[in-house]
Amino acid sequence: MAWIGYAQQDSNQSVRLMAQAGGDPGHAAAAELSWGDNPCGVGPVGTAIRTGTSRVIRSGAKDPNIAKWQVEACIHGYGSAAALPMMNQETAFGSINIYSAEVDKFNTQELELLGELSSNLSFGILTLRAREEGQRCQDALRNELDRQKAILEKRERLEFQIVQAKKMDAVGKLAGGIAHDFNNLLMIISSYSELMMDKLSDSDPLRRNGEQILKAARRAGELTGQLLAFSRKQVQALRVLDLNAVLEELGKILPGMFGDTIRVSVVQNKKLWPVKADPAQIEQILMNLATNARDAMPQGGQLTIETANVEFDEKYTRSHIASPAGEYVMLAVSDSGMGMDQSVVPHIFEPFFTTKGSGKGTGLGLSTVYGIVKQTGGYVWVYSELGLGTTLKVYLPRARGAEAVGELSSLRELPLRGNETVLIVDDEEPVREATRIFLEQYGYSVLSAKNGRQAVEVARKYPGTIALLVTDVVMPELGGSELAKLLTMERPEIRVLFISGYTESAVLQHGVIDVATCFLQKPFSLKALVTKIRNLLAASAPPESSIAAHPRFSSNRDLPQHSD
């Protein structure tokens, strides 16, 4: 019998059977062997490993060093044995052990051959061990490289998301600023066009020119409105909504948009959480996404609209840096169209970026969606591959502890003429002048001021009743909300109408402006202005949620006082 044993680095310094040829398979495994200096280590195996030298037993029945195992040796017929250490440089790591039925079997020549066999076997084992260790090191290195690569890729994705968010924010601020200034210009263009057309008869050839100017101004106003949506500067009439209900209403007109070549599927979560959003803006999101999906399938295909409740955990938010953990309502629009290359995806929300041909889009559809969603406190993600279609997922925060707001007030059809006194405050002189002329034509008495401080002076000097303050929101020296606070304290009967190219986010966040009743977005028509004024003045009493009562204005600090 021959067997190989390895020295174990355990507390007993035991010898573990690694391989065996011939003999009883259980004999070597059952023997209590040790390579330590103890009673189990005095045999040939333990001595060879401990000393690093060969050990020969000439007679299994007589050698006192194997007294512990002599009975077993006799039972199995082992007359002699040789144990040769397997060396790793100066240290034995095991032994090769050979048993013979003959007494004094191993002579010097045979022991030399067995020594060479032990050396070769040791070299082979050590080589295999080195290869295995090398492979383990390579695997460990490869795993570590893969781990570091994954960490680097994740970091790059997060850095890209941060850069994209900053870029979109910067573009949004630029777009919002441009749209605000442009709205003031459009206000002047449309106002004076209206004043001019009021002087022209229906048969006057110049009237057509005026109509074209107004049409162009209104179209430009729509574009600036989309820019304001992207820059998150639009006015929102927020209410608690069921997205399924909005989707069902739009579902009545969607088939007409797509024709017979596009199949529309709607998958709704029947227990959908409510969201707080502007219903008109939600409809705009759906229409923009549906239109975008339709244009991606010129030969027809499948459009799927889905609603669901989702929850972002900490793990998700670590890889989607723009999305705080929490509960959201998802609105997903998927198409089976051509899809997009990955180099295109990062740019699809940028204003005026489009993959459509010339004249087939403004490039503001998805940027409008992006702005509305971000202003509502949500997030939008896109998933697309060439040839596999596109999915856009909108996530809006779940509304909690809020009651649904009633339907927005609509403007009543009232006679537009009036005789009240109106104070107009705007830092754009052409806007003030056009508004003054138009209101005077409808019978109103008009006071005007170029900023808040001048408006305070005008109001304090005017002895009569001022029925309405029409003020821009953002002005130098004293803004519209601060002005409204002061004048409503001094003149409790005064009503307030805010106008602006965009609304300052702080004013909206504090709920100072009731967008349904006392705000008008520039550019607006002068007729829309006088209609809004008439509706405000026709109300029975000043709004209970007046500026003066708002907690934001609970003190008079930083407001101009009466002069002595």
Q: What's the CATH H-level superfamily name of the largest domain?
A: Histidine kinase-like ATPase, C-terminal domain
CATH class of the largest domain: Alpha Beta
Radius of gyration: 44 Å
Uncertain segments: 402-412, 503-512, 543-564
* Straight-line distance between termini: 121 Å
Task: Provide keyphrases for this structure.
564 residues; alpha/beta; Beta-Lactamase; Helix Hairpins; Heat Shock Protein 90; five-stranded antiparallel β-sheet; 15 helices; 17 strands; 19% strand; disordered C terminus
Structure description:
There is one protein chain. The protein is an alpha/beta fold and 564 residues long. It is rod-shaped, with a radius of gyration of 44 Å. The C terminus is likely disordered. Strand 4 and strand 5 form a beta hairpin. The protein is built from 15 helices and 17 strands. It has a 5-stranded antiparallel beta sheet, sandwiched between helices. It has a 5-stranded mixed beta sheet with strand order 7-9-10-12-11. The N and C termini lie far apart (121 Å). 42% of the residues lie in helices and 19% in strands. It folds into 4 domains: 105 residues, GAF domain (Beta-Lactamase, 2-Layer Sandwich), CATH 3.30.450.40; 70 residues, Signal transduction histidine kinase, dimerisation/phosphotransfer (DHp) domain (Helix Hairpins), CATH 1.10.287; 159 residues, Histidine kinase-like ATPase, C-terminal domain (Heat Shock Protein 90); 133 residues, 3-Layer(aba) Sandwich (Rossmann fold), CATH 3.40.50.
